[in-house]
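Handout, page 2. Input:
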Amino acid sequence: MGDWHAAVCEKLKLLYDRLKVDVFNSDYIQVDESTLPVIDNEKHRAVKGYMWVVRNANTGEVIFHYDLGSRSTEKALKLLKDYNGAIQTDGYQAYERFEGMKGKKMLGCWAHARRKFFDALTENKQLATEGIDFIAKLYHIEDQTKDLTNEQRAERRQKEAYPVIRDFEVWLQDTSCKVLKSGRMYKAIQYAYGLLPRLRRYVQDGRYNIDNNLIENVIRPLAIGRKNYLFCGNSDSAIRAGIVYSLIASCKASGVEPREWLENVLERMPYYETGKKNITELLPRNWKNNQTNRKLF
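Output:
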């Protein structure tokens, strides 16, 4: 059965590669990474690897990318060096290399900044609450603009949210000298202040999200997997897992039932492997919109 799975993934890799091209052709992506235990045959035990996840923020299509289990800056550069557009991430230091890089606009995640202040509540409830209240105002504005056009949303953000961010910046500067440098409150302040250039950029375009929560939702199946199948047997298995995760997540994003799609695609794949037919027709989003082309004959 393991061999069957490997053979199916080899077939699906053609689609995965095409999906990867489409995701990186988007002008706005979200990026995150999560742990994936993988058996190290030399150490004879599971070691902590990482799966990179890239989401097309415009369509919801997703790529899970495994590169020897590393989340190093080198791997981030390898993955994103040729991409041009907006990249939304958390504050992981590997992404700092892209700030100011030609062709890339880095966006931050206000949800991560907010979590730092929640972590500091037990240490300094008053100041942590003040920080949370600033961010709550930004989310309140987002709630009020959900039904607006992108242009209208950007205008409201610049008129209402940007002044809040400016006040928040002043508050961060004034508050940083009032707390211990070894405490959680100081770390929350430093985290938010260091990322402010990225955090404030979402006001520039109504398409940009205020946070990275949508991609974190996509990553949740990895956490479920860690509790169920526990680990991947080797690096090849992790790569195959990335292929399957990518295509099923993209099915869900496109409103496609994964099993129905998979059965139909595997039946039709031989007709596309020769290159005589356009394999992009089989990607979940295109497959859904091409109702008349699902039959073999």
